[in-house]
Amino acid sequence: MPVLEIENLVSGYSPHKPIVKDITFSVDDGEFVGIVGPNGSGKTTLLRSIVGLVAINSGSIKISEHKLEHLDKRELARRVAFVPQMMEPINGFTVRDLVMLGRTPYFERFSFDSNDDRDAVNWAIAELKIDNLIERQVTELSGGEFQRVAIARALAQEPRLLLLDEPISHLDIRYQVKLCKLLRQLRSHRSIIATFHDLNMAARFCSKLILLKNGELIAAGKPFDVVTPENIWRAYRIKVTIKKNSDKQRSKYVLLP
Amino acid sequence: MKTRLILILSLCLLLAIGLALFIGATSLSFNHPAFLQVRLPRVLLSALVGLLLAISGVILQGVLRNPLADPYILGISAGGGVGAALSMVLGAQFVVFGISSIPLSAFFFSLTAVYVVYRLSQVAGRTSPETLILAGVALSAFCSAILALIIKISGNLEAVYFWLLGSLSSANWVNVITTLPYALAGIIIAYYFSKELNALLLGEEMAATLGVEIEKVQLVLIGTASLMTAAAVSVSGLIGFVGLIIPHWIRLMVGPNHRYLIPLSALSGMLLMVVADMLARVILAPLAMEIPVGVVMALFGAPFFLYLLRRRRLEGK
């Protein structure tokens, strides 16, 4: 059963000027999907549409076979979690406090954190390997550390689907690889969709790629089938050649001089 | 740490109430008629007003996501003052289901004031903290002028003094009893939404992705803060800075988690107002004069506000 089904989606911030145009794709359990495309191609808007932050003009989004508009906010928040590109660290919060905010869709009024809440938070902290940070103030963390804390907060929602907007853009290459490996491990529990600027990183770590241009879908499928000289020319107007690794599962582009 | 702080503040509050009961222009013993009829209700009312103003400050700062928000600075108090004065002067005083018309009229005008300030400060769908403050200051000045005008026309200069400077000198048991339900309801509603307020620390959009119904929560909470301010203004006039100082001070000690921020702010708000009103009664007692408590608060609060503004600038926020 697909976790996410998107059919003929048209969405944007104004009904007259759609940003995402007629996009159809689905995401199965355990997939790690990368959304790629040039600046302004609608990657972030597509991601934000799935979590209900952007109005749907036409078409449909289904989360585990429920239409997005039929899910109430709390139900949606228990199924889909979103990590934005930038998040303000909260002054005076420890890492644990921040991760605990991920339990908001489960809280009961007038009650303290339940055992479930604590278990979920501890689990998310262990998954992101940030045990050593839990008592630190979030304002004191490095960019790479804070990014992992932000993802742990989303994981504490125990979502079926985890959405990340350019999770590696602000990280140095060592952290980029580290984080992508972590994300790849996470998908044994859930599906992940992330936007990327770096096509090679996306091709290396994702199980599926979606290539957008001007809000339209150019190609979708295995990285091997999406990262081709023709597709990259159509999306970015640059000429590249492709190197394939030995098992022909992965490919990366190299700029032509 | 947090539970201990609650305990310490509770003890301080009891101590302050004890002191305030027995310190004054004249020292009153238990069985003195003025003790029961004047001193006791006044001390209790000062505590209630402190709670109302501190919690509405916590709510406004949380919902508007603006650390400088405060019912006085945003003009909500002055708006409420106009409402209360109108209701009194026009003689439109009635009681519906045990609720007096004065706080209701104040509530309506407070709500209007919040709405106007919020809309005025919105530029292209966004509000900057500084624009919000400027809009509040302007509206506050405007409402204060109208308030002074209303009372001047009605011919009671003493009342202008009372309303604009904020005073608890007219405290009586009726005031205490009509104010109590607003204080109780207000703090319960604020606490009821404490987890939403925490989620809002991440911003409106992130709170929405955590399942918070943003519009509903904002509507209920801003309404609650306005009602609490209105209830305070109806019995004590315009007292500023309580809602600003208290939440800041508590946040410095225990962080911004509303689960602690709300009860601790309530306790400290009560403590601050009990002490401030005691000072207001005592400082000029040798000259047989009383300072309005709003003056005491402004003397301490205004420099504190400037300090906050400056620190924000230095931090580059």
Short account of what is shown:
Chain A: It comes from candidate division WOR-1 bacterium RIFOXYB2_FULL_48_7. The complex is a heterodimer of chains A (257) and B (317). Chain A has 257 residues and is an alpha/beta fold.
Low-confidence stretches of chain A: none
Gyration radius of chain B, rounded: 19 Å
In spatial order, strands of the major sheet of chain B run 1-2
CATH hierarchy, class of chain A: Alpha Beta
Q: Count structural domains of chain A.
A: 1
**How many domain regions of chain B?**
1
Count of alpha/pi helices of chain A: 9
**Separate helix tally of chain B:** 13
Largest sheet of chain A: 6 strands, mixed
Looking at CATH, which topology of chain A would you report?
Answer: Rossmann fold
Q: What name does CATH use for the topology of chain B? A: ABC transporter involved in vitamin B12 uptake, BtuC
Provide an overview of this structure.
The complex is a heterodimer of chains A (about 260) and B (about 325). Chain A is α/β, with parallel strands linked by helices and about 260 residues long. Chain A has a single domain, classed as P-loop containing nucleotide triphosphate hydrolases (Rossmann fold), CATH 3.40.50.300. In chain A, about 30% of the residues lie in helices and about 25% in strands. Chain B is mostly helical and about 325 residues long. Chain B is about 75% helix and about 5% strand. In chain B, a hairpin with a 2-residue loop joins strand 3 and strand 4. Chain B has one domain: Orthogonal Bundle (ABC transporter involved in vitamin B12 uptake, BtuC), CATH 1.10.3470. The longest helix of chain B has about 30 residues. The chains are: A alpha/beta (about 260), B mainly alpha (about 325). Chains A and B meet through helix 2 and strand 6 of A and helix 8 and helix 9 of B.
